[in-house]
Every structure is written in structure tokens, then in C-alpha cells.
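Objective 1b. Sequence-to-structure analysis of non-specific serine/threonine protein kinase.
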Amino acid sequence: MQLVISIAQIRAGGGVHKAIKSLMANRLLSRESQAYEGYRLTYTGYDVLALKALTARGVVTAIGRKIGVGKESDIYTAQTPEGEEVVLKLHRLGRTSFRAVKKKRDYLKSKSAGNWLYLSRLAAMREYAFMRALYAQRFPVPTPKDQNRHVVVMSLVPGYPMYQVRAGEMGHPEQVLDACMNIAIDLARHGLVHCDLNEFNLIVDEHENVTLIDFPQMISTSHHNAEEMFDRDIHGIAKFFRMKQRFPVDYDQLPKLPAIVSEVEALRLSAGLAQAASGAGTAADGGDEAAEDGDLAAPMFLGAGDDAEDEEIALDSQGLGLGFDDAAAGADADGQERAAVPVRLDLEVKASGFTDEDEDLLRQAIAQAREGAEGEDGDDGAEDGDDGEVE
């Protein structure tokens, strides 16, 4: 109790017992008396903290109806101060088959504060980071609005989940199939594999535009399982159109990850060489002018000095994905048009502070939660108000 008083910065006897009793009555706190004497924050309590912060920021002013429930999240509509209807995604890792997953918690031992609330926050941070990166590169994803704790705020995407579209209802299934395949291809060109691309994560509107709405398990194309995961995504989409939409698919013509990666590497090498040639030409021209003025040119063995742009070009020619973006298309020195070099979004998200350790921790947690849910059908799942902490 003294710790509660200290953290809350209230006077002893200043109604702390009454406040805790009220919080417990509303299932915002849960009392623990087995391993230790104390209180735990519940998912409902975590919801309140996140929504209070988002309201204080002026992101949302009202919460609407629940429009989706998944194994790992709840989806609600909300309203902004401007009256725009947006979506709130509340991550709830560990809710399903809670006890089953607790038995397999080795992946939490490296985190002293490891609990499901922390993992849910990690999932929200990751999703928001990827959403911002994809949106910036004009991928068909919701508009990222904000994120706090385990809650992500995004724009409401018009349309229906693809799995709800019955055979014969698509006017141009070949266009929709191409759009789905292009999402997987474009992700790969930007260094990413979705790992769970299917009809449940894609929205189709009345104009048959396709939007990607969920990406919890994306990995880098440099991951050792990248090709296997890419093939699974591609064949899963192909199977949906062949089986559910009754649309013929030529499996021999499906895209292959090695070919996509090779193409991008060739573009990156070509762009790096073109930039280097252009820089060399400029340096030569400058040297001629300097010689005419009687100045001495810098020795050729010296580097580019403090020129950050030259340094980025050199790094990018080594395949590190720095210094180029999708707007980098242009003409080579000989006047030939050059294709754009995609940004390595896997590196960009990692640079934002999402570490490899966080990535592995979250991926294992999601896998264990899904395994537990399938094994017990949610019989031991924690309710919304139950504590989300792993002891």
C-alpha cells in the first residue's frame, strides 16, 4: 500500500483505500494475494489509461461501437474533434488461452517487466511504425493517426474484408488478384515479407481497390525464412481466388522472392554506380576549372571529406539501403531513364528504435498465443477485465 501511495503521490489516508476499492469494482485493478500482496493493472485499466492520453492529445473525443474481435485485438470506431470517424485497434496479446501460454513463457525470461500488457504495447508500437513507413511510401494502408500504449488510431477504410466477398460478386477478379499480388511484390521490393497475407487482412471497396489493414508478423527479406513465408503468402492468395472466387490461377506465373530481390539489388547497384559516375564527372569538371585558375586539385587518394551524401551513396552501393528513396528515379549520365530504388523499410523501422530483441520477443509471443488458442479453443482465456501479467 505504501508503494501505491508513493507512486500515486497522494497523502496516506487520503482516500487511497476507497480509490482502490472503486478501481477494483470497475475491474480496472485486480488484487494479487498468492505470489505477493498487491494489485495488478488489468486490460480494462490499461484501456482507460491509453484512451485518457489520446483524449488529452485531442486525437479522439468519443468511442463508438465494436466492429471487430480477434485473437489478439479488439477494434472500435471513434470520433475525432473534427467529426471524422476513425478506428481504434486495442492489442490484447495473451487474452486467448492465457494459462496455456503461461506454461510456455521462456521467451519472457529476458524481460524483467515481461507481461502481456508490455507485449501488447510492443505490438502496437510495431504496427504503428510499420503503418507510418508503408503510408509514407504510398502503400494502400490506413492513414496512421496516433498510438499510445497498446492502442493504435488509424483512418477507417471503406469496404469489406475480402473473405466476405462471395464468388461472382467481384466484377473484375483478375484486377483484384493482381492488386493483392502487387502488395506482396511491393513489400518485397521494400525489404519486407508480410508472413500472414490473406483474405482476412485485405479490404476491398466498391471500386475494387484493395487495402492492407493488418501486418503483425512482417519480417525482412534477409530473414532466413523469408522465401518460405513469401511463397506461403502468394500461394494462400492464389488458393483463395481459385477455391473461393472460382477464378483460374496459373501457379507457374506466381512471383518469386529471389527474382524480386535480385531485381532490386541490380537497381541499387546501378543507381550507386550512376551516382558515383555523376560525382566523378562533377569532380573532374571542378578540377579542370580549378586548374585553369591555377589552383591545385586535391590528391585522388583523399576521401570525400565531410560530404554526407557521398557517404550515403557509398553505403547504398554496398546494399545497406541508405541514401535512396522511391523518388530517386531519374536519368543516368548517358541520358537513359533510371528506375526508382525502393527504400529498405525493414531497416527504416529498425532504425526507429524497434530492436531485434523486441522483434523476436513479440513474434514468439504471437506464435505461442495462437498455438495456445488453437489447442484449447480459448477455454482458459482471460476475460477483458482479468489481469494481463505473467508472473
